[in-house]
Amino acid sequence: MKIRKFLLLPALALGVLVLANCSPKTGKSTAATTPQPEVHYTAAQLAEGQTIFTSHCGKCHQLFQPNEKSVAKWNSVLPTMFRKAKLTEEQGNLVRAFVMANVNK
Ligand code: HEC
Question: Which structural domain range is residue 9 located in?
Fold first, then answer.
C-alpha cells in the first residue's frame, strides 16, 4: 500500500505535464503574429465558451465583443462579470478562453 501511494503522486504529476504539453493548438490566425502559450482549449470548448458568452453576457448591457476591449480590460472585468452572470468556474474558464482567443492583441 505504502509503495503504491508513493508511486501514484509522481505518476499523476507526470500525467498532468504530458496532458498540458499535448494540448491542441487552435487554428487562430493571430497565432502567426502573437505566441499564445496559454491557449489550451479545443475548438469545441471555444465554441461552448462562445455559446455561454452569447447567452449570458448580453443581459444587463450590450454584448461587448472580445475585440472591443483590451486584454487588460478583460482581465480586470471578467472575474466580476462571471459573478454577475452566476457562471460556474468551468463556464467562466470557457468564456475566458473564447474571449482571449478572439481579442485584438
Ligand atoms: C447582472 C448584470 C450583468 C451581467 C449578467 C454581466 N454584466 Fe458585464 N457589466 C455589468 C455592469 C453593471 C457593468 C458596469 C459596471 C462595472 O464595470 O462593474 C458591466 C461592465 C462590463 C464590461 C466593461 C465595459 C466597459 O467598457 O467598461 C464588460 C467588458 C462586461 N461587462 C462584460 C461582461 C461579460 C463578458 C459578461 C458575461 C460573463 C457580463 N458582462 C455579464 C453587468 C453585468
Answer: 2-102
